[in-house]
Amino acid sequence: MRKSAAKKRALLPDTKYNDPMVTQFVNNMMWSGKKSTSFRIFYDAIDMVSEATKEDGYEVWKKALANVMPSVEVKSKRVGGSTFQIPIEIRPAKRIVTGMSWLIGFSRKRSGRSMAAKLSAEIQAAYKNEGAAIKKKEDTHRMAEANKAFSHFRA
């Protein structure tokens, strides 16, 4: 067991938007250490979003990410032989990571075209509060609401 918690490493901001969150998103999207490919996919997706919405693609991405981030989750806890789903507030850092992973994961599951096109389609859907990532967030919130009665088991 560690003596102290691991220190959070600061992420360098990306070159285009000067935002560490973009770097975090790209790091989550990256496969096999191909960061430059991941950045290219992200920037292409943002360009596609700005063409489609006639708005700043970066701002649309930030709003889409904010729409996708969940505020509560359910955790399983075993109490007296039975397992309960207990709703728990999510800390801010985990909200961001969860939202990013949902956006990326559901982008990958979309059919057809390039990853940039799939990512831009998912970002646009999340911006309009529709799409698979938003459905996942709503399902999570609905499950937490349904199990509110067990919130007194919280550790």
Question: Can you describe what's shown?
Answer:
The protein has 155 residues and is mostly helical. The chain has a single domain (20-153), classed as Ribosomal protein S7/S5 (Ribosomal Protein S7). Helices cover 56% and strands 10% of the residues. It is built from six helices and two strands. It has helices at residues 20-29, 35-53, 57-68, 92-109, 115-127, 132-146; strands at 72-79, 82-89. A two-stranded antiparallel sheet has the order 1-2. A hairpin with a 2-residue loop joins strand 1 and strand 2. The longest helix is centred in the first third of the chain and has 19 residues, at 35-53. The model has no long low-confidence stretch (mean pLDDT 89).
Short description:
The chain is mainly alpha-helical and 155 residues long. The protein has helices spanning 20-29, 35-53, 57-68, 92-109, 115-127, 132-146, and strands at 72-79, 82-89. The chain has a single domain, classed as Ribosomal protein S7/S5 (Ribosomal Protein S7), CATH 1.10.455.
Number of domains: 1
CATH superfamily, please? Ribosomal protein S7/S5
Trace the largest sheet across and list its strands: 1-2
Sketch the topology as an H/E string, one letter per element: HHHEEHHH
Query: Roughly how many Å apart are the termini?
Result: 20 Å
Tell me, what's the shape?
globular
**For the record, what CATH class applies?**
Mainly Alpha
**Beta content:** 5-15%
CATH topology: Ribosomal Protein S7
* Number of beta strands: 2
Residues in helix, %: 55-70%
* Estimated radius of gyration: 18 Å
In the CATH classification, which architecture applies? Orthogonal Bundle
Number of helices: 6
